[in-house]
Structures are given as structure tokens and as C-alpha cells.
Write a structure and sequence with these properties.
Blueprint (H helix, E strand, L loop, with lengths): L17 E3 L2 E4 L2 H12 L4 H15 L9 E7 L4 E6 L9 H8 L19 H12 L4 H14 L1 E2 L2 H11 L2 H4 L4 H5 L11 E2 L2 H13 L2 H5 L1 H12 L6 H5 L4 E3 L2 E5 L2 E5 L6 H11 L12 H21 L10 H4 L2 H8 L20 E7 L5 E7 L9 E2 L4 E2 L30 E5 L2 E9 L3 H15 L4 H6 L3 E5 L2 E5 L4 H9 L3 E5 L8 E7 L8 E5 L6 E4 L1
Parallel strand pairs: 17-18
Antiparallel strand pairs: 1-20, 2-10, 2-21, 3-4, 3-11, 4-7, 5-6, 8-9, 9-14, 10-11, 12-13, 14-15, 15-19, 16-17, 19-20
Helix pairs in contact: 1-2, 1-5, 2-4, 2-5, 5-9, 13-14, 13-16, 13-17, 14-19
Length: 541
């Protein structure tokens, strides 16, 4: 398969593809090294992924923390497994709860603060993965993160950029515990300045010593409940104790001789599957990669996919339609016929009924491949940090609706709509690539754009990662990276797209990690790419 890539294709970048039999690719070098350390100690890809994920809570706190949610897809050597570790709403959350606190006109739970916090699932994901597939002792996996938190690290450029932006927002800096944890000198750290997080190290030790029990049914859970109660929050230790991550079957669609796998709802991975299913009705491989026509078709397919995703996707128990109905080939063929090659459109949802995130991936020479994502959602999540424990909590509750009739109407224990989505590619049922692209609603858009480049245009993973991207917003509005060819930008405007061009290294155009299997993992190994839009690294041996 490797010989079919155009290895000469490329875009301006600070990165080159990385080759090896054991690889960890993350958005921070210290996390990649934490994972590689586990592989060097005889661990497998799951051990590496967990160690990297724990380290990421310390080195990229603007994107994730100990109070994150998480999802994973992994190939265990024989088959795929999916893990949904997104937590549900506190038992006290109802539409009436929020209307009483915020008025009858409130459309969603709070954006920040305790009224945006659902049960965090990331720590439970680490435990579940380790119990079922890990090789090393769980406490060993926490050791690199504990060391980094206690000794500190020099803050890198991209992380500092987003940290400083957050420090300018009163909606964050005013949240309980935020300034104490993340503004240790009354400001965000400078590039190269040392940041220590001993409170988080304390919690990581408790997690390590109790196999996560302290977080959900022990000392940390009690501290979370007490902090919530002190600040009017509804989350309780009972909510935490009741949480269990869910092992799930992936959902998939065929494209260009491969199969893309995503986690089923309550996440938005189905949007990438819908868009690819629509694009399968067009000959993209016969077009030029950066041509107006190729980009226009992808944008329009993504619009159609989002229209259905935002209309129908929620916690599966409250969905009006099934993923199978949304991915029905006949239905996607009908949706494809709505695309006009000569003009941009604003699409509504169809009727499929008949009648702030980090991503990492790790692989090993025995063939295990892990696609893992965890997030606090918007930069620094809720802004709430539990004092003495360094638990920064996500704000996934903001993904609920307070609108009657919405599939995402808030309810006790219900899981909100999620943006974070790991991905996995197979070919004929065999593993091919573990990958993901982080960044809000850019994630399925990044999956789509990079896969088209890999599979239709035969661009190698780093080139597909480096290539300029677009981001659909709403209506006919799109953002494009400033590196997109001027002729392509103008051509899209001529078709009616409302194009705004700018450069952002963090959120707006996503950031991905990719590991492609070259053949026998113990012989040919893999090739990996790490997105230059972050501070990351693909590390191999």
C-alpha cells in the first residue's frame, strides 16, 4: 500500500513523515515520549495511549484535564472495539432546573461554570482500556504524568497562545479555582516559562494507587461534590459513582476501497460517514486535489451531513432515527443529487426515515492500534478547577438544549451531543490507519478532507495533514486557511461561498495525528504524521 502514495507531494510544513514499528503521535512531545516510555518498558499500544493521555492533561490544559470526557477506537490484533466514556447529566438537571436559574428564554445550559459540567469520563476510559487490553501495571502508566506535573515543564508556543487567550476572558478567570490553578503568577505562563501542577499530581497518584476508584468513589469524588455544593452546582458523588464507560460497536461506511469507522451517537462522527457516503457518488479521484471543483463538492457534502447530524444526533435513547437509517445508501444517493456543481447552497435536514480537545494515537509492532481522544470541550472547559486536586472540568453540558422537542433536551443521566470523535480506517476488514482531527465541529470536516487526500489523491499522511483546509460554519459561510491557493479561494467565491481567509494554529482548522500501517507491523511497520498546527510530535522506535 505504501508504494501507491505520492511521496513527493507536499505543502509548506515544519514536519516530515515518521517511520517506525512502534509509534506514539500526540500534540505535545512530552506526552508522545510518555507513551514511548511505556512501549520501551514492554507495554503495548494501549499502555502507551493511556500514559500519553494522562500526560496530556498536564501539558495541554487548555484542551483537556482530569475532568475530561473521552472516546477510543482500537484494533486489538483481531477486531475493532469502540469505547464511549462520555458522562451523563447530573441527576438534578432538568429543563425546569435551568429555567429557574436562568429564565424562560434560556436556550441551553450555561457555557461555563458548574452548570455546564456533566460527569467526567476520561479517567474511567483509562481504567477500562487498561483492564481489558493493557499489559503494564496501571500505576506505571500514571508515572510520567505525575513526574511532569511535579517537576513542571516549559510551556510551548501554541499552548501558550491559547492559554493567554483564555486568561483574557472573565467568563473563565472568574470561575472557582481557575486563577489558582492556571494563572499562578496572575497571568498565563510565557513561552518557555516553567509551569508546575502539584495538585494534579496528587490526584494522579490517587488515581494510580486506587485504579481510578478515588476519582469516582473516593476522596476525589467527595472533593468534587463539596466544591460543586459550595458553588451551587448539582454534580454529586453519587453521579460520579454511578458512571460506567460503554463498550460499543463502531459504525462505518465504505469509501475508495476502504472503510471509515466512527463511534456511534451521541457523537458527531456520523457526519464524516454521511459526507463520504455522499461523495462516493462523485469522481473526486479524477480531479486535482486543490481544485475548486474538488473542494466545492467536499464542502457541499459536509453541509448536507451536518444538517442531518444537528437535526437527529443525540443520546441514542432519544434519537428519532437510527444511524443505519441516516447512512442508508439509497438515502445518501438522494442527498448527493441535491448538490449543484455550479453553486453553493444552504441545506436543511433530510428525512432518513423510510415511509478546546486533544487527540493521540499509538501503535505497536504486534499490530495493536489505538485511536484516542479526550477533551474539556471549549478552551479550559467549564473553567472550574477543584482546589487541592487540580481537576479541571469539562463543559459538555452546554451541548444540551432547553428547547422542548429537541433530541438533545437535557434530562437526568442523559449524555449530551459530543463533538470529539476518534476515527479508524480499515481495508477489507484489516487495519489500515488510526487517526483523528481535533477542533470542535472541524473534526468530521478534518476526517473528510484528509481521507479524500489520502485515498483519492494518494497524498502521504504528512502531506494530507499539512494541506490547507476549509471549515464550514453555517449557511454558505466557510473559513479557509491563508495557505489555500488564491485561485481556489476566488473560485469558491464565484460559486457563492462566503469565504473568509485567515490563519489559526489551534482550533479553527483542526489538528490531527495519523498512523498508517505499511504492512506487517513487525517488518515494514508504520508511517506517522503529526499536525504542524500544534506543538506535537510523532515519536517512534
Amino acid at each position: 500500500m505504501s508504494s501507491s502514495f505520492d511521496w513527493a507531494a507536499g505543502y509548506p510544513s515544519q514536519r516530515l513523515p515518521v517511520f517506525g514499528r512502534n509509534i506514539v503521535s500526540t500534540s505535545h512531545p512530552l506526552a508522545a515520549q510518555a507513551g514511548l516510555r511505556m512501549l520501551g518498558q514492554g507495554g503495548n499500544a494501549v499502555d502507551a495511549a493511556i500514559a500519553a493521555a494522562a500526560a496530556m492533561t498536564i501539558v495541554e490544559p487548555c484542551s483537556n484535564g482530569l475532568g475530561s470526557d473521552a472516546f477510543a477506537i482500537l484494533w486489538d490484533g483481531d477486531k475493532l472495539h469502540g469505547l464511549n466514556a462520555s458522562g451523563g447529566a447530573p441527576k438534578g438537571w432538568t429543563p425546569e432546573y435551568f429555567r429557574t436559574r436562568y429564565g424562560d428564554d434560556a436556550r441551553a445550559p450555561a457555557k461555563r461554570g458548574w452548570d455546564s459540567v456533566t460527569v467526567p469520563g476520561a479517567v474511567a476510559a483509562w481504567v477500562a482500556l487498561s483492564e481489558r487490553f493493557g499489559h503494564l501495571a496501571f500505576a506505571d502508566l500514571m508515572a510520567p504524568a505525575i513526574e511532569i506535573a511535579e517537576r513542571g515543564y516549559a510551556v510551548p508556543w501554541v499552548v501558550r497562545q491559547k492559554w493567554a487567550m483564555a486568561a483574557s476572558l472573565p467568563e473563565l478567570t472568574g470561575q472557582p479555582g481557575f486563577a489558582q490553578a492556571f494563572l499562578p503568577r496572575g497571568r498565563a505562563p510565557e513561552v518557555g516559562e516553567l509551569f508546575r501542577f502539584p495538585e494534579a499530581a496528587r490526584t494522579l497518584r490517587l488515581i494510580a494507587d486506587t485504579y481510578g476508584e478515588a476519582f469516582y468513589r473516593g476522596e476525589v469524588a467527595q472533593a468534587i461534590e463539596q466544591h460543586a455544593k459550595a458553588h451551587g452546582g448539582a454534580l454529586t458523588a453519587a453521579d460520579l459513582a454511578a458512571f460506567r464507560p460503554e463498550w460499543v460497536e463502531t459504525i462505518s461506511t465504505a469509501y475508495a476501497g476502504h472503510e471509515l469507522h466512527e463511534i456511534p451517537p451521541n457523537g458527531q462522527g456520523i457526519a464524516a460517514l454521511i459526507a463520504l457516503g455522499i461523495l462516493s457518488h462523485f469522481d473526486l479521484a479524477g480531479m486535482k486535489p486543490d481544485s475548486v471543483s474538488a473542494q466545492h463538492l467536499q464542502i457541499e457534502a459536509m453541509k448536507l451531513a451536518f444538517a442531518d447530524t444537528y437535526r437527529y444526533v443525540s443520546d441514542p435513547a432519544s434519537m428519532e432515527v437510527t444511524p443505519a437509517q441516516m447512512l442508508d445508501p439509497e438515502y445518501l444517493s438522494q442527498r448527493a443529487r441535491l448538490i449543484d456543481r455550479h453553486r453553493a447552497q444552504d441545506f436543511g435536514a433530510g428525512n432518513p426515515v423510510k415511509g478546546g480537545t486533544i487527540y493521540l494515537t499509538a501503535v505497536d509492532e504486534r499490530g495493536m492500534m489505538v485511536s484516542f481522544i479526550q477533551s474539556n470541550y471549549m478552551g479550559f472547559g467549564s473553567g472550574v478547577v477543584v482546589p487541592g486536586y487540580g481537576v479541571s472540568l469539562q463543559n459538555r453540558g452546554h451541548g444540551f438544549s432547553l428547547r422542548a422537542g429537541s433530541p438533545n433536551l437535557v434530562a437526568p443521566g442523559k449524555r449530551p451531543f459530543h463533538t470529539i470523535i476518534p476515527a479508524f480506517l480499515t481495508k477489507g476488514g484489516a487495519p489500515q490507519m488510526s487517526f483523528g482531527v481535533m477542533g470542535g465541529n472541524m473534526q468530521p470536516q478534518g476526517h473528510l478532507q484528509t481521507l479524500v487526500r489520502l485515498l483519492d489523491f494518494r497524498q502521504e499522511p504528512q502531506a494530507a495533514c499539512d494541506a490547507p483546509r476549509w471549515r464550514f460554519n453555517q449557511g454558505r459561510s466557510i473559513n479557509v486557511e491563508a495557505t489555500m491557493p488564491a485561485g481556489t479561494r476566488e473560485g469558491l467565491r464565484a460559486l457563492g461561498h462566503q469565504v473568509e481567509s485567515f490563519q489559526d494554529s489551534y482550533q479553527d482548522f483542526g489538528a490531527g495525528q495519523f498512523i498508517w500501517r505499511l504492512g506487517d507491523p513487525a517488518v515494514e511497520g508504520y508511517v506517522a504524521a503529526s499536525d504542524p498546527r500544534r506543538d506535537g510530535l510523532a515519536a517512534a522506535f
